[in-house]
Amino acid sequence: MKFLPIILGTDVNAYGIARSIHMAYGIKSLCVGQGKLPMTNHSKIVDIEVVNDLANPSVFSTAMIPLLKNKLEAYDKLILFAASDGYAELVIDNQEELSKYCRLPFVKKELKEQLILKEDFYDLCEKLELPYPKTMKVTKDNYREIEVPFTYPVVVKPSNSVTYALAEFKDKKKAYILNSEEEVTETLFNIFTSGYGDTMLMQDFIPGPDSNMRVLNAYVGSNSKVHSMCLGHPFLEDVTPTLVGNYVAIKSIFDADIYETYTRFLEGISYTGFANFDMKYDERDQTFKIFEINLRPGRSSFYSTLAGCNLIEEAIKDLVEEIKVEEAFLSREEKLWLGVPKEVVLTYTEDDTCKQVAKEMIDRDDYGYTLFYDQDKSIVRNLSMKKYYQSYVERYEKWFKKKGR
């Protein structure tokens, strides 16, 4: 059977999806996006089609259907992946029409509405007794009068990451750790006067370094049963202002309790498709508290493939090959995934134990990168990827600072 994987996006996550497919099936994927980015450009494992303004909902619906119809003339089946929140939401909103032409590893639209906004997701967590940080909702109408109910520092982040991504203003960050009332007021003023009109969330800051974080990637089959899961222990976060909250060093680990808790959650809400969770261990009450769920593979999710848990392959087995899974695969293999140069990890990882573990795994060559792939080399690509990773040396010199504890 001849099938074509189509990936929405051309960034590092898109490449990770394409590489996972190439490792499992030895075939090229098609990346469709608004432009060519270095991560997928000059690659032997992807073709790229550029569609101007593809992230615009009206353009997306009119552009994708003819594209899918055209591709179906040469393939038996198509399967569609999304490399970003915005594309995932567009697919889900148009899934009735898209599903006529391709397989879709996504949640149903009705469930998306309960998950896409963090404030609604936390309501669901409350109902299903999944711990999350203490949270207060802030709007453009009340932000000038709010009284901060938490001790500083506090976290401020958007409830709707999709509409927030469209807002433009000075010193924009994915999330903020703020240390005073003045910082809170100034940050919220900048956000709400930028055109962002949805809710912002203010949260109790959970103290501790990046090494207290955990990231969980899962694929849940079309029967709403978990097919595979891989847990990661982040050692270091991205410091790039627009990428704060993304990880750049992850060790894959095993934790039976977390696997059990999130299997119960996903199957309990009849989830389907990819799920990506971020959580942090709160030493004050000895619990892992959930921050958010992403309805697509996480930006750093290639750590799962590196650890022998190829979630993208699981989706293809489920929806294209229609192979039944009798038992969930819960990853146990330990690998170190890096999204920055080795020296950055060994210099800026705050936890000494994690830093030593990273050094040992690097020394025994037990690590890997998303963008360095033996089957996808050329002089132009190698130079471009080295330049991309090396840019992180300067980013950490410029932006790194220890977090509040």
Automatic annotation (TrEMBL):
- Entry-linked InterPro entries: ATP-grasp
Highest taxon of the source? Bacteria
**Domain ATP-grasp span(s) in chain numbering:** 122-320
Q: Could you tell me which Gene3D superfamilies the record lists for this protein? A: ATP-grasp fold, B domain
Keywords of this entry: ATP-binding, Ligase, Nucleotide-binding
Q: Name one GO molecular function term.
A: ligase activity
Q: What is this protein called?
A: Carboxylate--amine ligase
Organism of origin? Vagococcus hydrophili
